[in-house]
């Protein structure tokens, strides 16, 4: 769905940039679809990220309409990213070992 696309894009941006926070301005500059979204869709997108424990609203940066201009990224996201990298490395080593063992049997 379009909603999932927006959430996925922002999550990917957070991971790619190792962000501690994300602002409305960043999204306007880097995510071309952001400006075309209605305010309720933008709010729903961040509600999904907040509910998924990716972000939380920075209530010190509210717009005149009470909408956060910045969301803080959960520090655990970086931990999950590091853990995923270690898991990929570990799996690659096992696959290489299994491949090497399989080739040894063919000789």
What topology does this entry show?
Layout lengths: L1 H16 L3 E3 H7 L8 H13 L3 E3 L12 E4 L2 H31 L1
Antiparallel strand pairs: 1-3, 2-3
Query: Kindly state the mean pLDDT as a whole number?
Result: 89
Following the backbone from N to C, one meets helices and strands in this order, namely HEHHEEH
Number of E-type strands? 3
* Helix-and-strand structural type: mainly alpha
Distance between the termini: 51 Å
Query: Which shape, going by the Cα principal axes?
Result: elongated
| Oligomeric grouping of the chains | single chain
pLDDT under 50 segments (min length 5)?
none
Strand content: 5-15%
Strand arrangement within the widest β-sheet reads 1-3-2
Helix content: 55-70%
Number of H- or I-type helical stretches = 4
What is Rg?
A: 19 Å
What's the story with the biggest beta sheet?
3 strands, antiparallel
């Amino acid at each position: 769905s379009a909603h999932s696309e927006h959430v996925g894009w922002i999550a990917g941006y957070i991971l790619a940039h190792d962000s501690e926070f994300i602002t409305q301005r960043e999204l306007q500059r880097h995510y071309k679809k952001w400006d075309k979204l209605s305010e309720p869709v933008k709010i729903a997108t961040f509600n999904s990220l907040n509910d998924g424990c990716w972000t939380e609203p920075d209530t010190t940066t509210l717009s005149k309409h009470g909408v956060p201009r910045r969301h803080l990224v959960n520090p655990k996201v970086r931990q999950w990213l590091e853990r995923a990298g270690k898991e990929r490395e570990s799996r690659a080593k096992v696959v290489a070992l299994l491949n090497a063992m399989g080739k040894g049997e063919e000789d």
